[in-house]
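Record minuted for everyone:
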Amino acid sequence: MSTVKVIQRHEFADYLNCGTSATPDWQLMGTGFTSLNESPNAQTNTKKYVNEKSSTTSITQYQTEFPYETDLIASEAAITTLYNIARNHLTGSDAILEYVRVELWDPATENSTTEFKARKFSVANSVSDIEGDDDIVMSGTLHAQGDPVDGKFNVSQKTFTATNAVAG
């Protein structure tokens, strides 16, 4: 009898580039984050031809989003990077960041303990709320722009290496 292994949330690692594309500074989105999820938001098109009883639905595109909620912790670079976009009312390209989602259960090469399969996204950060009577909590959404880049992430060196674009 085979054992079924369900992936746990801690087996995803999320990194935000708090530097620049030329000089990345990948910071773990861990401490402070109480939720960080992925919503692929598949968009569909449904058709029914006159000679058919039932409709057919096809996937036409994705509008991926990553909703998050975090305690506002000043010493966490990823959190302050997200906060400063809202605080300073940044718009357009000033509100766009690089984000990597790492699959820690899936080594990039056999027996690797430091490199794992990952996807890099360009995301627009939209902070929706900064609130709290005691601890301040910030919530928002990272909205993916375009297709993700498939690759691998080295968790000890904090580097992303692209392989191929995700098929689309």
Q: What stands out?
A: The radius of gyration is 19 Å. The mean pLDDT is 95.
